[in-house]
């Protein structure tokens, strides 16, 4: 887990909020009072109104990326894939502009690598569309793309913890709220689609966030609370809480470490690296013969280059417990520029799931979609 020193310009209460509510925020109609009471039990004197005002201030100042539910796009439907490309130095900005012009491209970063210096994410409603999009990008740029889809996810997510109250970030109020029964249904009903689109950018930072969402989608607040809770249980929502802007907390360095792990060791290595609190993403991905020899990715963050390098060394130390790591078996690609960051287009992917598995005109769409034989 990350820690930010005393020089971060946040009050004790703000630090407590960031630490406590990066996951496990109450999914109940009026969440602020029970959340404040839980903080008071940890020695932080605050009531519901003051807690709401604090989150509003953090959000307004950009300390938070957003407040609310972190939607797991993969579980909603469709697919996203990481793509690498070489952009010639003389044409780099031109190529970046062309790539960024594709609405399917969500994130795009310039990274330090002698050849593959542009890395972007393609998000589509149908996995079959990936090949078409990459073909169109290659035609438009004249550059070859290298598709690196996730083959196994070992870990996604991190807590950026601050010096102050609730320093371990272990306050979890996700048990509050209605009892729900998860389903194994992949599709979305039309009402669920509307809810996903409404909350993908966060909940409103108001006294009644779930009621406000209910009003926006034309559903009872009880249904919204129960559906968000069920989505948590089903993995469609990774967590509910405050989502810090790690750049605002001083974590401006992010290093994508890549490793050529022996195939028979990847699973054990992945589990071990995923246990490191400062690793935010950890995946197995394919190699590309002659161009890209690495099959394992781990993302780390630091407040400066020296801290990032220490984190990378810690990852290597863990690796070395499982296989003989040579100097040519790994690399670190630091990001040097954010070229595009618009987020995954959840609405397109949710729409496709309704089209595939639900009928907007069918009042029994939910029960039909839950039955694979229907």
N-to-C CA distance: 46 Å
User: Major sheet: order of its strands?
Assistant: 6-3-5-4-13-10-12-11-7
Helix fraction by DSSP (H/I, runs of at least 4): 25-40%
What is the C-alpha radius of gyration, as a whole number of Å?
22 Å
Order of helices and strands: EHHHEHEHEEHEEEHHHEEHEEHEHH
Notes on the structure:
- With 374 residues, this protein is an alpha+beta fold.
- The chain is globular.
- It has helices spanning 12-20, 32-41, 48-60, 73-76, 92-100, 129-141, 190-199, 209-217, 221-234, 266-274, 305-320, 346-357, 365-370, and strands at 2-4, 64-71, 79-85, 105-111, 118-124, 145-148, 152-156, 160-162, 237-244, 253-259, 279-284, 296-302, 330-341.
Chart the SSEs and their pairings:
Layout: E1 2-4, H1 12-20, H2 32-41, H3 48-60, E2 64-71, H4 73-76, E3 79-85, H5 92-100, E4 105-111, E5 118-124, H6 129-141, E6 145-148, E7 152-156, E8 160-162, H7 190-199, H8 209-217, H9 221-234, E9 237-244, E10 253-259, H10 266-274, E11 279-284, E12 296-302, H11 305-320, E13 330-341, H12 346-357, H13 365-370
Parallel strand pairs: 1-8
Antiparallel strand pairs: 2-9, 3-5, 3-6, 4-5, 4-13, 7-11, 10-12, 10-13, 11-12
Helix pairs in contact: 2-3, 7-8, 7-12, 8-9
């Amino acid at each position: 887990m990350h820690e930010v020193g005393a020089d971060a310009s946040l009050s004790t209460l703000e630090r407590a909020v960031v630490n406590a509510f990066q996951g496990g925020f109450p999914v109940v109609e009026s969440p602020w009072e029970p959340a404040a009471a839980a903080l008071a039990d940890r020695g932080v004197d605050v009531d519901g109104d003051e807690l709401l005002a604090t989150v509003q201030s953090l959000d307004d100042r950009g300390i938070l990326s957003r407040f609310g539910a972190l939607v797991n796009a993969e579980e909603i439907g469709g697919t996203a894939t990481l793509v690498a490309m070489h952009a010639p130095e003389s044409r780099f900005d031109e190529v970046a502009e062309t790539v960024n012009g594709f609405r399917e491209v969500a994130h795009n970063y310039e990274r330090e690598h002698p050849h593959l210096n542009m890395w972007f994410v393609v998000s589509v409603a149908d996995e079959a569309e990936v090949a078409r999009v990459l073909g169109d990008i290659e035609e438009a740029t004249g550059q070859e793309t290298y598709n690196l889809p996730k083959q196994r996810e070992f870990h996604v997510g991190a807590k950026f913890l601050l010096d102050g109250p609730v320093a371990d970030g272990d306050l979890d109020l996700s048990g509050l709220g209605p009892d729900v029964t998860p389903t194994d249904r992949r599709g979305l009903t039309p009402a669920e689609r509307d809810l996903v689109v409404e909350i993908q950018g966060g909940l409103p930072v108001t006294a009644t966030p779930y009621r406000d969402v209910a009003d926006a989608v034309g559903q009872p607040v009880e249904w919204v609370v129960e559906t968000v809770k069920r989505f948590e249980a089903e993995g469609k929502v990774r967590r509910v809480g405050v989502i810090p802007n790690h750049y605002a907390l001083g974590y401006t360095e992010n290093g994508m470490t890549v490793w050529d792990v022996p195939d028979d060791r990847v699973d054990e290595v992945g589990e071990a690296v995923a246990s490191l609190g400062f690793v935010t993403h950890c995946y197995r991905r394919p190699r590309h013969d002659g161009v890209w020899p690495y099959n394992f990715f781990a993302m780390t963050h630091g407040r400066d280059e020296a801290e990032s390098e220490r984190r990378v060394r810690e990852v290597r130390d863990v690796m070395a417990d499982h296989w003989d790591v040579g100097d040519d078996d790994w690399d670190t690609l630091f990001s040097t520029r954010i070229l595009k960051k618009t987020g995954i287009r959840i609405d397109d992917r949710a729409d496709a799931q309704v089209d595939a598995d639900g009928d907007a005109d069918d009042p029994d769409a939910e029960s039909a979609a839950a039955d694979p034989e229907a």
